[in-house]
Structures are given as C-alpha cells and as structure tokens.
Amino acid sequence: MFKLSERIEKLPPYLFAEIDRLKQEVKQRGIEIIDLGIGDPDIPTPKQIIEVAQKALENPANHQYPSYEGSFEFREAVAHWYKDRFDVDLDPSSECLALIGSKEGIAHLPFAFVDEGDYTLVPDPGYPVYTTSTMFAGGMVYKMPLLKKNGFLPDLDAIDKSVLNKTKIMFVNYPNNPTSAIATKDFYNRVVELALKYGFLVASDNAYSEIYYDNYKPMSFLEVDGAKEVAIELHSFSKTFNMTGWRIGFAVGNKEGIYGLGKIKTNVDSGVFTALQQAGIFALNNYKTLNEPIRKIFQERKNQMTQALKKANFDFEEPLATFYFWVKVPNGYTSKDFAKKLLEEKGIVVTPGVGFGEYGEGYFRISITNPNIQKAVDAIRSL
Hints:
Domain Aminotransferase class I/classII large: 32-380
Cofactor: pyridoxal 5'-phosphate
Organism: Desulfurella amilsii
Pfam families: Aminotran_1_2
CATH architecture of the largest domain: 3-Layer(aba) Sandwich
Structural class: alpha/beta
GO molecular function: L,L-diaminopimelate aminotransferase activity; pyridoxal phosphate binding
Distance between the termini: 45 Å
C-alpha cells in the first residue's frame, strides 16, 4: 500500500542485518554460534564508569533535555583529552560537539555540506554509512579503492580531477575498518594539500585510535599542519571504553565543519543524555587507567589469532591497531560464499569483504571481540 522512497529502494541490504538473519536460521538447527563478525566488544564497560553513570542517573537535574552541542564540561573534557593524547589544541566552545555515537555524526555530515550533484570521496572497502549517508543527502559517491599494493591507502593521484572539482567531503578512516591498515603522516599531509587545493572538507573517522598493539600508537589527522583548516575528526567511546551500547561520541576540528554538523543535529535529533556525558567526562579524564586493561586483553587475543591463522596458512597482514583481521578468502570461493559456508557448516560468523564494498571482494574480516579464538580458527581450518 505504501511505496518506499527511492532513496530507500536503492539501498543495498544492510550487511549485519543479513548476517543476523542467517545466524538465527543456524541457531534453530542447534548449531553453536561463535560470532567473529561484528565489532562489538564482549568485555564489560569498566565498573568505575558505570558507577559514575549510576550516580548521575539519580540526579533529577540530568532528567531534562540536554543541550544539543553537549555540556561545556563535556566538550572541555574532550579538548583536554585531545591535548593530552595528540597534543592538539581545541576550543571547547566552537571546535567540539557531542554526538549520540560517531555513527550519528557520519550519517548527518553530508546533509550539512552535500547538494545534489556533489561528490563525496569514500574508501572502498569501508564503513557502509559513508555511502548511504551520501545517497540520503542526494550526493554522488566516488569510490577510492583500498588495495593491498598501496598499503590499503587511497591512491590520491588516481582520483578523477573533474570529480575533485565537485567534491564536498572526503572520508578517511585510520586505523581502518575493515582492513586494519594504518595511515602515515605523509599520507595525511597529502590529503591536507588536496583538500586545500579543491576546497573540500575531510572527515576523519578515528574510532579505533585507542585499540593498538606492539608499541604502535595511532595519530590524529588533526596533528598534521593545516588539518584544522580542512578537517573534522569523529571519535567514539564505543571501542576505547567498551561502551558500544551507550551511544556517545564526539566530533572535533574545523569550526565551520562543527557548526554545519551541529546545525543538522539541532534540527533532527537531541543532545546526548546528560548522565552519559558525565560518565564520558570521567572516562576521558581517566582514559589511561581505564583503556590500558582493555588494550591488554585485545593484545593477547591479537597474538593468539595471529598464531592460529599462521598455523592454518591463511594470507593476512598482522594488525597494528583495531580488533580486526583482514584475511584472504581461500581459492575457489567468493567472500560471501565462504562466509555463508562457515556459518552454515561450522557456526562461525565472519564478515564477507564484499559487504564493505566491491574492492573488499576476495577477503573476509575477523573480529577478536570473542574469546573463542582457537576454537573458531580450528573450525575454519577444518572446513
């Protein structure tokens, strides 16, 4: 009776929703599921953060509408964290914005800056929201292939010049989901030069900056000279503090970018629940103490997964950050076929690379947010 809009009709099936449907079918057949698919940490949120949130929940003053941009105290804590962690100076009043998770900010950004006929530059493979949010805003997506031969960095020289002239936003995401690749300062310098030349906004999705290994420490895009002239950066509490369900994050950087994103936010949703902001302030002010035990657990799992995959003779690059492994699909399979076979025959959930874009074909993504690593790899190897 009711016809869906064209923008909805054009959407591909959301990858994780499709995987969830298949999982339920396999469960009904009595097969045990080991989920290495979605990047949702199994480790609880640190108890200290929960206790701060509980106390804040009891304060009636926090039960009213929150401010759209976030409390000044929250934005001040974000600015202090960026200074301590990245040595980046931010003005809390104009260069910081609270978000209901970084996904909200990514999804709303094109509405602020993209008109019909404008382009966004989107990494492929990449987080699907970069593409869908552009489509919703009426813009066009230009795919930047992430290839192994380039270290899974976009080839900036290969971007069509006619597209660059119509580009409004370039999305970059390092440490990268799904490939776990990292970016160099030289690459970021070249992105800044390109953005200044063509006048587009860079959106740096830095959600995985605090999940790192082996003495490597990811940088912020905003550390690069001139970055604040062209870029905003989005961050989330989800991975850093195991707070995926809490839905709290922030955007920082270029004042015009923050203003535009805030303008959309004001018109389509509300601010972050004040009690959550207070928990977020505590988390940021104590991030070293709270984040280190989390990283230690993922370091151990990363080492275990590396050894297991090597023993099973899989082709992959050992990650220096994120909790993902980007693994070549065995010969004779597409990524979807291999993922489906694993789920249906072994109860192992992995994410087919093609779900992140056409250039993800030939790979599958494993998440180490499940402790049953050896059991899962043994099952994969026995397929």
